[in-house]
Structures are given as C-alpha cells and as structure tokens.
Amino acid sequence: MKHLKIKIMSIALLAATTSSMGQSLNKMNWLNEPQQWEIKEGKTLVMDVPAKTDFWRISHYGFTVDDGPFYYATYGGEFEVKVKITGNYVTTFDQMGLMLRIDHENWIKAGVEYVDGKQNVSAVVTHHTSDWSVVQLPDAPRSLWIKAVRRLDAVEIFFSRDDKEYTMMRTCWLQDNCPVMVGLMGACPDGKGFTAIFEEFKVTPLADQRRLEWAKKQASK
Asked: Which key words tag this protein in UniProt (predicted)?
C-alpha cells in the first residue's frame, strides 16, 4: 500500500513539474508550411496565412480541403494546451487558433473566425465529416486566449480575454490512447491572406486519469 501511495504522489508530481515547462516553438513541425513566417525569441509565431486555404471535410458544402498552415508537435496521453491569438482579420472566414489532429479525417480546430465583419469564437470538430459551432463576440478584442483540455476520450474547449477567467465553448469526442498533433493553425478560405500572431503557447501534460483512479483503488484495499 505504501508503494502505491508513493506511485500516486509520483504521478501527480510529474504533472506538476511538467506544467512549469514551456513549449519551444523552435522544435515543431509544419503541415502546409506558409511562405512567410518567423519565430521571435522562441516564444512568438508570426505567420502570413495564405489565401484560399482551409480545413473542412464534406458536410454542407460537399468538398474537402486540408491545406491550411498548421505548426505542431505530437503528444500522447492527457494534456492542457493554450495560446494567445491576435489576428488582423479582413475577410469573412479568416480564422486562427488551436488544432488537435490525429489524421486528415479526425481533428479539432478552435479559435476566432471572422464572419460578416464580426469576430466569433468558433470550433470545427471533424470525424470523417466536419461540423461547425460559432458564437459571435459583442466586440472586437485585440487578442483572445484559447485553451483545450484533453481528458480520456473528451476535449473541452475554452476562451478567455485575460488568461484568468475562461468560458467553455465546446465539449467534444476525440479518440483516446493515441498520439495527437497539437499546435497552431490559420486559414483564409475566401480572402487574400492575413497576419496571425501566436503567443504564450504552452502544452501541459496531465496525470493519466485512469491510472490515478486505478492506483487509488489499489491503495484503498
């Protein structure tokens, strides 16, 4: 029993220790690398989102596109990811934010999408076909923070104006027990492109929920 209690403490300590580590933007990978981008001081990604790019599969429109820029690293297990996003949105459907991606048929994108002259918090969840949820913001904040938490087979998505108080915008399914590409995406389906700035990107691994519950049950025997 003593060994199991120590194991529980070790799992929790690992999560707490890892949470203090930032994600290095210099050690990530591109899907659909844009022509113009740069990393400033290892902490800020600035990219010109190319024109006529998007992520979408089949539903409603009948077409599939998978050519937006996506800058990512791969993670397993459970985690929290968040980023501060700032965009000079110009044309309807200009968008930027986080993406969690297993493959070209299974992914989530969440962030800000510009629709009819207004900023919206937006999420697209895709499992073979895409859906879209969107809520218009009452104003046009310069920046927003977007956060996603992967727990077991679910992802919770939040937004914030100050990185302190977060509002949930979506809960959705994502296959668990498999690696996930986690990172920063932009798209400009109808416009001529725009500049997207990503700051304070951070991925925090979380202690595995099933393993913690199992260890607690064993310790109580």
From this structure: Signal
- The dotted CATH code for 25-206 is 2.60.120.200
Long-range own/partner contacts, residues 15-21 (CB < 8 A, 24 or more apart):
15/204, 15/205, 15/206, 15/207, 18/204, 18/205, 19/204, 19/205
Q: Coil, strand, or helix at residue 190?
A: coil
Nearest-angstrom CA–CA distance, 146 and 110? 7
In the block, which residue shows the tokens 């800020």? 44
- Non-local CB neighbours of 131 within 8 Å, separated by 6+ positions: 59, 124, 125
Domain chopping of the chain, boundaries: 25-206
Integer-rounded Cα radius of gyration of the chain: 18
Contact status, residue 123 vs residue 130, Cβ threshold 8 Å: no
The per-residue pLDDT for range 126-163, each reduced to its tens digit, is 999 999 999 999 999 999 999 999 999 999 999 999 99
Report the amino acid identity of residue 125: V
Dist. CA 173–CA 151, nearest whole Å = 10
pTM for the predicted model, two decimal places: 0.88
- In our burial notation (b when 16+ CB lie closer than 10 A, e otherwise), range 172-187 reads bebebeeebbbbbbbb
